Amino acid sequence: MKSNSTLLILSCFFLCSIGAFSQDISSTVTGGEYKFNENNTQCLTDEQRKEVLNDIRSNISLLRSQNRLIHNETQKRAPTILLSWPVKMKDGAPYNEVWAISNYVDQNPEYPNKVLDYNCGTRTYDTKAGYNHMGVDIYTWPFSWKMMDNDEAEIVAAAPGQIIDIGRNQSDRSCVSNSNLWNAVYIQHADGSVALYGHMKKGSPTSKNVGDTVERGEYLGIVGSSGNSTGPHLHFEVYSEIKWNGVGQDVLIDPYAGECNSMNNDSWWEEQKPYVNPNINAVLTHSAPPVFPDCPGQENTFEKNVFEPGERVHLAVYLRDQLAGSKINLKVLRPNGTLYTNWDFDLTSSYRSSYWYWIIDMPSLSGEWTWRATYQGQVVDHKFTVGTLSVKDTEFDAISIHPNPFNDVVYIQSNSFVKKASVVDILGKTMMIKTNGAETIKEINLKSLSKGLYFLRLEGVNKEQKTIKLIKE
Ligand SMILES: [Zn+2]
Q1: What whole-number distance in Å separates Cα of residue 20 and Cα of residue 446?
Q2: Looking at the 3D structure of the chain, how many domains does it have?
Q3: Which domain holds residue 377?
Q4: Residue from 454, 450, 455 nearest 466 by CA
């Protein structure tokens, strides 16, 4: 009896106090699945592939005759030619990640509708005409057209090698099946294997030429929708051998190792990513729900980061591989870092990409607020401002730290006076507080922290604040 009434009083205290300054945001949810390439367009027609491979053969022959070919034919596939991830977010783009996967290689030579990926699943496709998907389709998410128009999703070399062909000037806003050729860069690695990077944005391929070499991670182009394509994506196709003299068969591989990969046994990835790979691709604030117009229109994203007190904000998250039966935790934090509201959202379906947004009418408390999503152990913050930042606040906001990730000492670079520094872990537990009295804080020693993610909160003399995500290695 006693404990029940205590609970009642406590829960009333808790709920009433929440109710006094909070809104029921969780029930305003809207969103759902975003579907890419529903019609499964063949990325490269059979004739086009033939043409591409023949061009590659003649370029290899030419480079060979000029003694410029890097591939030494006595060297068979070296296990050192491992692939790193070929898509990279442009530095400074406002997302957390920019890609998702629509299709793997089809391992089942039968057709139509006889599909099998390396993991014995069906994330691949074939066509009535007998095409079995020969590459990995990596599409951009969210806002793929905006990303293409702003060069926000880069294609980079998965391994060092030599450019053996390149195409630059095809139109790049394909939405449906067509016979246009794509823009692409083709690289041969030292062991003779060849990677095709297709569907690039018009004019975006590297200014390097056939015969030039590229480093691992070097810029090759921008993810686009040139050629036979229904939207911006990279088609990444790999051969262990290309028969430069036309004798014998070219050998296609599937870079993923898995039970149902009957093409090759070992993974070609330096670090093979999980088959299903849930991720928060973006956490953003908007003045209105984003609009996804018909292809190939650029999305109207209504992104906004500075709001008036009382203004309505659309809080959004964009997920890759959302898992049925999982939960995402959402939080809104006040400028001083305390919790304003917090809720869980149940994800009832599995989607390759999805978006969800909630509506909040901002309280009049000015300053830099935080919109935080936590999913499958990943924490992503988005900062937005209510009211106008004073000059002092803006200066304080320019504070930077280095190194990050760090091992022991973190240095604070600032023109403002830093009065207090505190570090909290992802559960909100304070791990360290430092104040320096009359001197600004220039460094903090965090040697004693264990590996993981933390938040460093810095405070100035006029209550200016800044929170920075820290990673201890
Ligand atoms: Zn493809």
Answers
A1: 38
A2: 3
A3: 277-388
A4: 455
> Would 264 be classed as within a structural domain?
no
**pLDDT band at residue 246 under the 50/70/90 scheme:** confident
- Do 399 and 374 have their domain in common? no
- Ligand 1 centroid from CA 127, angstroms: 12
Identify which has the larger pLDDT, 393 or 173: 173
| Contact assessment for residue 352 and residue 102, using Cβ atoms and an 8 Å cutoff | yes
18 belongs to a structural domain: no
Please identify, among 359, 388, 417, the residue that sits at the C-terminal boundary of a domain: 388
Q: Looking at the structure, do residues 211 and 101 belong to the same domain, yes or no?
A: yes
Q: Answer whether residue 23 shows pLDDT above 90.
A: no
Predicted confidence (pLDDT) at residue 104 exceeds the cutoff of 80: yes
331 C-alpha vs ligand 1 centroid, how far in Å?
Answer: 38
Residue with more model confidence, 391 or 467:
467
* Per-residue confidence (pLDDT) for residue 263, from 0 to 100: 95
| Whole-number pLDDT of residue 199 | 97
- Ligand 1 midpoint to CA 197 (Å): 10
Q: How far is the centre of ligand 1, averaged over its atoms, from the C-alpha of 367 (Å)?
A: 46
* CA 47 – ligand 1 centroid, Å: 15
Q: Examine the domain organization and report whether 247 and 297 are in the same domain.
A: no
Residues 63 and 148 reside in one and the same domain: yes
Task: Give burial (CB, 10 Å; 0-12/13-18/19+) of 116.
Answer: buried
Alpha-carbon gap, residue 187 to 252, rounded angstroms: 14
- Interval between CA 117 and ligand 1 midpoint (Å): 13
Give residue 226 CA to ligand 1 midpoint distance, Å.
12
Q: How far is the CA of 229 from the centre of ligand 1 (A)?
A: 8
Report d(CA 329, CA 28) in Å as an integer. Answer: 15
Same domain, 191 and 238: yes
243 pLDDT higher than 70: yes
Give the DSSP H or E segment for 103: strand 99-103
- What whole-number percentage of the chain has pLDDT above 70? 92
- Residue 384 and residue 394 in one domain: no
The answer to which of 6-20, 232-246, 356-370, 454-468 has the lowest mean pLDDT is 6-20
- How buried is residue 223: exposed, middle or buried, by Cβ count under 10 Å (0-12/13-18/19+)? buried
- Quote the pLDDT of residue 7: 41
CATH of the domain at 372: 2.60.40.1930
- Global pTM reads 0.80
Find the 137 Cα to ligand 1 centroid distance in Å: 5
- Residue 12 is predicted with a pLDDT of 39
Residue 10 above 50 pLDDT?
no
- Domain end: 253, 288, 312, which one? 253
Q: How many Å lie between the centroid of ligand 1 and the Cα of residue 64?
A: 30
For 144, the enclosing helix (H) or strand (E) is: helix 144-149
pLDDT computed for residue 410 by the predictor: 93
